[in-house]
Write a structure and sequence with these properties.
heterotrimer, A mainly alpha (175), B alpha/beta (368), C mainly alpha (510), A: 175 residues, mainly alpha, 2 domains, C: 510 residues, two-stranded antiparallel sheet, 22 helices, 2 strands
């Protein structure tokens, strides 16, 4: 996974730039005490980010992967596999490579709010669910319709009982 | 067979869903329909925007008020409270500006927002001059001292050998005029400290003597701080007062406490005069007279505004409402309607530009 | 005293009050179960209901709700690696690996047992600490609070497990995010550009959903494999977990006590207490420290016990001084006022004492009811870990986006949740530790404000106060313990596994 290492180095650089920019802003306004604390944070952050960038570069030069170490992380991750799975990346529906699926799902996630911009969010979410389950997950129509219908009812009950607010479709002014 | 049953179940669910969706509140728009004859609000629904979190004091108060206001409005429309917190109330009032100006949308704001239209304009997309204030409920601020820091009376403030630390949540315009007033009293090494995380944190700091004096809204004071008077931990010193006819007067809930201008007179023997004290009075009108102000769009149908004015007139003398309001706030806060509330809002909307500049400079000096 | 205690219990278990307790617990469990929604939402909804209610009923409902959310939130944390509320993030650390091993029901059993014991101990701590509330409140000035936030931050080193550099950078990034928006000390806006959404600063719940919940679900969907392949214990797993929990009495009691004491400290809150207790437990255990993070049952118990115990601690300053220890406590305080219950020293007067006991009994009963009903459900719900993620994941994504919107009811919230979710997913892929970011964010604003006030009030003399020095020494010990633990592990398996630990130092040395 050399490419991931490259991405990480790139991200190190981006973060260094973010910290450095914030540090510049803070140091330029440091005559106002409001910026003393941010200045301290951002200067430390710039140092930490610089250190990380150099450390990662050295490790890559030494031929190590940057993303194989152990860190404290929580929740599921894309690299989780069961020990006795037939192969690491394949799944039963087999749609594309790991990277392809990551990209596809990211786009689906972005699509949800985009749809919500034009259709009231409650309906947008139901349409999005049907589309995702049918076209990305390739579920049976029966499952798709039944589960989304049940979800719609439950969500509606929650919305009414817990006074949950839904984002309005601001582009069309609906909802 | 099994799959057949599942299909049926699925269809039944879908039908149930369709039924429920038809009737329930999955979107935010209230029903604007209604009959054309009869009272304006007959069969209609009013949306009241509250720019605070659900569950807070302003929200609870507004919900209580909504119930009573509905009863007094001809046609008894339902009034739905919508919480739009965030952006220091600007989000909520910006949203109010974007709603239809049809009399079916009302908004609530606190004095902080009214002051922000002069001192913190960033992000404001409305002009308060376009709105009609329907009614306002006041609530003053109580300044209390720490016995731990050796304050037992007003005079102790002046005679204290130690620096006086005054604490609050955030340095905004209304906090700035209080800091100004205290500073004017000739307190030795007066130092305002802002950034406390809520009224409770201020109380705790006063308890331990970290702060010499702190402030609290009067209802918070009565609910949560007054008990500490009994065991001698805190001592009430003065209030910000109300503004009536351009004069700062005592809070009826604290008839024995002097207002800040009175305290100034008592401690320095001088009359509160000059641009600083004028600004104090203007901002006090915004902060305390207009603690909770309810607005309607100025260009809403005259019929709607007339109905609202009438209902508000009845509401403020409704014994049941007053009793419930007093129980919620623990303070008999004098309501203002009509010309009175208009005068209070005008005091800040038409604030002398000189005062604006003066206060901005004062805040810049204080925070530097 | 005993009389009031019994009287309070009698009042509480009478039918008209106990109904409200069950209602509160029921709603709390549901809210905890739904990732992203928590006690705040429920309190705000229930608050209008309590107008005109008898104090005992209202207290039973509100406190029952609060206690039950931190029980229900364990389900998603363990079963899907998605924190149910911000207070159960650390539970995921070991709970989710247990679920992957097919031990979901065992983890849940242990968690609910810890919840219950934690709740009991929290109630007792509330009772015991009330007389000491005053010295506690008066003793903790801004300098001490500042040092405590630093102590919490120093746990980043303990949690880093090797990647100290990235961990601290992540924590600093969290602190930087916390400075976005209006600075309360001066009223200036910082780092907002022209984006009005940022004027308010970022919301903790949005950050928590985006940082942990969304990446976890996205990963599950990418994998499209069930969390576990089979249940190790088809039957009796929950009981097994409960028994295992009682086997670690010290973890159980220690974390309950730690959680309730931390609850008293303002500005720390549930979202950090779980991490602190997790880190402390990892440092304190004698054996098998390596297993933490890989499915150690003690890692589930520690945050869960502390989670529920903190509710007792939070109430100490709330009841005694009307000083709310958390956002939910602030709403609770409003609820008390609505019901005409005056908080403050008068709560200890004979005619009001029964209310204190009503609160304590509610804590005890709500935790018992909540934990037991959750345990009853655990066997069935733990089968979620055998389902394909597509059967629940997409629905949860929708719920999380909606939950994010509740934070400020602004479109920017939706955008922020999705954006932070994708960035956090990338962070996870690049092996950047995410927990320090959240800890830095939560403690950042407290640290800044307390430091500002400390310097403004005391100059630099506060640094010489004995209590400040004591906490400073504890911070140093924590840091060295974190680092030496790291080095110890490094030397232990230097040869077989190449880790990320201080790479430059190591390479330059040898």
């Amino acid at each position: 996974m050399v490419s991931l290492s490259a991405v990480r180095i790139g991200a190190d650089g981006v973060l260094l730039a973010v910290f450095a920019a914030a540090a510049t802003i803070s140091l330029l306004s440091v005559d106002s005490p409001t910026y003393w604390f941010p200045a301290f944070i951002t200067v430390s952050g710039t140092l930490a980010a610089g250190y990380n960038l150099v450390a990662d570069l050295l490790r890559v030069r030494a031929g190590h992967s940057l993303t194989e170490g152990e860190i404290v992380d929580i929740g599921a991750s894309v690299s989780d596999t069961h020990d006795d799975t037939h192969d690491g990346t394949g799944s039963e529906d087999g749609t594309g490579s790991l990277a392809g699926r990551i990209l596809a799902l990211s786009l689906w996630l972005v699509a949800l709010p985009l749809l919500g911009l034009v259709i009231p969010f409650f309906y947008a979410s139901l349409i999005w669910l049907v589309a995702l389950l049918r076209f990305q997950a390739k579920q049976k129509w029966l499952f798709v319709v039944a589960s989304v219908a049940v979800f719609g009812v439950v969500l509606n009950v929650l919305i009414v009982l817990l006074e949950i607010r839904m984002p309005p479709a601001i582009l069309t002014g609906l909802g | 067979m099994v799959s057949n049953r599942q299909t049926t179940a699925g269809l039944a669910m879908a039908a149930a869903a369709a039924l429920l969706l038809g009737g329930c509140g999955v979107t935010n728009s209230g029903s604007a329909g209604g009959s054309t004859d009869g009272p304006f609000y007959q069969g209609k629904e009013i949306n009241l925007i509250v720019p605070f979190d659900a569950g807070g004091a302003s929200d609870v108060y507004s919900r209580m008020l909504a119930g009573h206001l509905s009863k007094h409005l001809e046609g008894q429309p339902q009034i739905i409270v919508e919480n739009v917190p965030g952006g220091a109330q600007k989000d909520g009032i910006n949203r109010f500006e974007r709603t239809e100006h049809n009399g079916l949308n009302l908004a609530m704001s606190s004095g902080g927002l009214i002051a922000a239209t002069q001192f913190d304009k960033e992000g404001i997309q409305f002009d308060l001059a376009d709105y009609e204030p329907l009614m306002a409920f006041g609530g003053t601020m109580v300044i209390f001292g720490s016995t731990q820091a050796g304050i037992h009376s007003l005079e102790d403030l002046r005679n204290s050998a130690d620096p006086i630390f005054y604490g609050g949540l955030e340095l905004n315009a209304s906090e700035a005029v209080r800091a100004f007033a205290l500073q004017e009293m000739g307190l030795k090494d007066f130092e305002p400290l802002m950034g406390y995380d809520g009224g409770g944190a201020v109380t705790a700091a006063v308890l331990r003597g970290e702060l010499t004096i702190g402030n609290s809204t009067s209802s918070h004071y009565i609910e949560n701080v007054k008990q500490l008077e009994q065991d001698g931990s805190v001592v009430p010193l003065m209030t910000q007062g109300y503004v009536v006819g351009g004069e700062v007067v005592r809070d009826p809930a604290f008839p024995d406490l002097p207002t800040m201008p009175e305290a100034y007179r008592m401690l320095t023997g001088q009359e509160p005069q000059g641009i600083g004290w004028d600004t104090y009075t203007a901002l006090t009108a915004a902060q305390t007279n207009l603690l909770r102000t309810y607005w309607v769009h100025g260009d809403a149908p005259e019929e709607a505004r007339a109905a609202l004015r009438e209902a508000v007139g009845e509401l403020v003398v409704d014994e049941q409402f007053i009793a419930e309001a007093t129980r919620l706030l623990h303070v008999d806060s004098p309501p203002q309607i009509g010309a009175e509330v208009a005068a209070s809002t005008a005091a800040i909307v038409d604030l002398d530009p000189q005062s604006v500049t003066w206060l901005e400079e004062y805040m810049a000096r204080t925070s530097a | 005293m005993l009389e009031s205690a019994l009287e309070a219990l009698q009042i509480l278990v009478s039918p008209q009050h106990v109904v409200w307790l069950f209602l509160g617990v029921g709603i709390g469990l549901v809210l905890g179960l739904i990732p992203g929604l928590g006690g705040l939402t429920g309190m705000a909804v229930l608050l209008p209901l309590i107008v005109g209610l008898e104090p005992a009923s209202g207290i039973a409902m509100l406190i029952g709700l609060n206690a039950a959310t931190t029980i229900g939130d364990t389900f998603p944390s363990v079963l899907m690696g998605v924190p149910g509320t911000a207070a159960s993030q650390a539970t995921v650390l070991d709970g989710y690996p247990m679920a992957r091993k097919g031990l979901a029901n065992v983890a849940l059993g242990a968690a609910f047992t810890s919840n219950m014991v934690g709740g009991f101990i929290g109630g007792i701590v509330l009772l015991v600490l009330i007389p000491f509330a005053r010295p506690l409140i008066v003793g903790m000035g801004s300098p001490q609070l500042f040092m405590l936030t630093l102590l919490g931050f120093s746990l980043v080193g303990v949690l880093a497990r090797g990647a100290v550099g990235p961990a601290f950078m992540s924590g600093l990034l969290g602190m930087l995010l916390a400075t976005i928006g209006s600075a309360s000390m001066t009223g200036d806006y910082r780092f907002v550009g022209d984006v009005f959404y940022l004027y308010d600063g970022l919301d903790l719940s949005i950050l928590a959903i985006g940082l942990f919940a969304i990446p976890s679900i996205m990963s599950l969907l990418t994998q499209n494999q069930s969390v576990a392949q089979k249940m190790v214990h088809q039957r009796g797993g929950v009981l097994r977990g409960a028994r295992a929990a009682f086997g670690h009495k010290r973890v159980l009691v220690g974390n309950s006590l730690l959680g309730s004491v931390l609850g008293i400290v303002p500005g720390i809150g549930g979202s950090v207490i779980d991490w602190i207790t997790y880190g402390a437990t990892k440092q304190a255990v004698r054996s098998g420290r390596d297993q933490f993070g890989k499915g150690d049952i003690r890692g589930v118990m520690a945050p869960e016990a502390a989670n529920n115990a903190k509710d007792g601690g939070v109430l100490v300053p709330t009841l005694m001084f009307g000083i709310p220890g958390s956002a939910t406590a602030a709403i609770l305080l409003g609820g008390f006022a609505t019901m005409g219950v005056a908080t403050g020293p008068s709560m200890l007067s004979p005619e009001n004492l029964y209310l204190v006991f009503v609160i304590i009994w509610t804590l005890v009963l709500a935790n018992a009811i909540g934990a037991m009903s959750s345990a009853a459900l655990a066997g069935t719900l733990s089968r979620i870990s055998l389902l394909k993620p597509y059967t629940y994941g997409p629905f949860l994504l929708v719920i999380m986006v909606i939950a994010g919107y509740q934070a400020g009811v602004r479109w920017g919230d939706v955008v922020a949740v999705v954006l932070i979710g994708l960035l956090a997913w990338l962070m996870q892929g690049l092996k950047w530790p995410r927990p320090p970011l959240l800890i830095g964010f939560v403690l950042g604003s407290g640290a800044e404000n307390y430091l500002w006030i400390s310097v403004g009030r005391y100059g630099w003399t506060w640094l010489t106060e004995p209590s400040v020095i004591v906490i400073g020494v504890v911070i140093l010990i924590t840091l060295t313990a974190g680092f030496t633990g790291v080095f110890g592990r490094l030397y232990a398996r230097f040869a077989p596994v190449e880790t990320l630990i201080e790479p430059t130092k190591e390479s330059s040395r040898g």
